[in-house]
Amino acid sequence: MRSLRVLSRLLVYPNAETQGHMNDLKQVLAEDGYLKAKTLKKLTVFMDEFADMDIMDAQETYVELFDRGRAHCLHLFEHVHGESRFRGQAMIDLAGRYREKGLEIGVGELPDYLPLFLEFISICEPEEGLETLAQAAPVIATIGEKLKRQKSGYASVFAAVTELSGAKLNKEEISKAADAALPNIRTLDDLDKEWQEPDAFGGAEDCGTCNDPMPLQPASKPAGHTENIGANQ
Question: What single string gives the DSSP state of each residue in 104-172?
Answer without folding.
Answer: PPPTT--TTBHHHHHHHHHHS-HHHHHHHHHHHHHHHHHHHHHHHHTT-TTHHHHHHHHHHHT----HH
